[in-house]
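Quick note —
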Amino acid sequence: MVSGGPAITNSAANDRDPRRNASLVQTLPFGSARAIPAGVSAAGGFGGATDTQTASGTLTISGWQRGLLVVLNPVYSVAESISSRQAQARQVDARSFTLTLSASYQFARYASVFGGYTFFQQRTGGSSTTQQFDVDQNRVRFGLQFGYPINFD
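Predicted structure written out below.
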């Protein structure tokens, strides 16, 4: 899948590139793999307009054991301020890495147990960045899920 379109940012006559994204999906005998080699977009957020580039992948394992679904998802992202003319307080250059491993096991028709672990790391910096943040997080989630289908006909 490839998508694109205009996402033009004009900051003091400094026009930026249009947005683009691409992804590749491969079906495997035991699940599927998806890769997004690079995506570029303009975004406002951490204190000004930035160019954001993201690369990610997803590995889904589903045919290994009946009722078991395992997903591995790494994501790397870089956000850089688009202009050195932005006010010093509004300059942001950030890099982040997220690695998520999750599993779900359906043990009955309407019930499953799930769990997951996420590691998140973010670093801000650059010569013009006034605020420096180093973030490391470990997130764990688990639970029991019940559901019953409701038909809307």
